[in-house]
Every structure is written in C-alpha cells, then in structure tokens.
C-alpha cells in the first residue's frame, strides 16, 4: 500500500510539472502570435505619473516579424524572443544600433491584444516607464 501511495504522489507531481510547462509555452506562443507581423506605434508613455503623448506626431514604431527579427524607427535591427521569466511575460531584444553596437533590451509585457499593447521598461534602477502602443 505504501508503494502505491508513493507511486500516486510521483505521478501527480510529474503531471503537475508537465502542465506548468505546457501552460508557459502556450502563454508565450499566444503572446508571440498577437505581437508578430504588425507595426506597433507608440501613442504615449507614463513615467512617475507624468504622461507624454505622441498621438498625431511622427513617433517611435517597432515591427516584430514572425521569423523572430525586429526593426524599429530608430534604426535598430536584430532578433527578439517572448519568454516567461519568474512569472512575467517578457520581450527580450538582441539588436544592433545604426553604428553596429550590440544592445539588449528587455520589456515586461503588461498586456497585448489584437490592436493594443502595453509594455513596461526599467532602465537600470530607475523608475519603470509604461509604453502604450497601437497598430494601425
């Protein structure tokens, strides 16, 4: 009986971990599919309660392509991945500047939908900035 009990606990534990892996993979796949093959335009940002609007202006935009590449209006090009790190959905970008300098940028995904996306970016130990995008 003790052996059966141990076997049931082991099977339950294995099932629990298998489900968690599938859930995180499903979550990143869904976010990635909502993100890709669209050009996202920055509408406004909020830092420390201060809102800066870019609506109606030539502004920053970024395009995430299905092949994992990225390009933006600042001339950055490279690759990106959508990952789940410590319970947070993130976009990890490995890009090069127009001068060829490598740069890594990490955004927390607050939300992403068919036409709206909210990201959070924290530079070093400063205050995080919320970035609000739409695709048109």
Instruction: Give the ordered list of helices and strands.
Output: HEEEEEEEEE
> Pairing-aware structural class of the strands and helices?
alpha+beta
Terminus-to-terminus distance = 63 Å
Number of self-contained structural domains: 1
Largest sheet: 8 strands, antiparallel, barrel
- For the record, what CATH class applies? Mainly Beta
- Give the count of helical stretches: 1
Helix content: 25-40%
State which percent range the strand residues make up: over 45%
Could you tell me the mean pLDDT?
A: 83
Note the overall shape: globular
What is the number of beta strands? 9
> In order across it, which strands form the biggest sheet?
1-3-4-5-6-7-8-9
- Examine the coordinates and then state which fold CATH places here, giving the name of the CATH topology: Lipocalin
Radius of gyration: 19 Å
| Uncertain residue segments | 14-22
What kind of assembly state do the chains in view correspond to? Answer: single chain
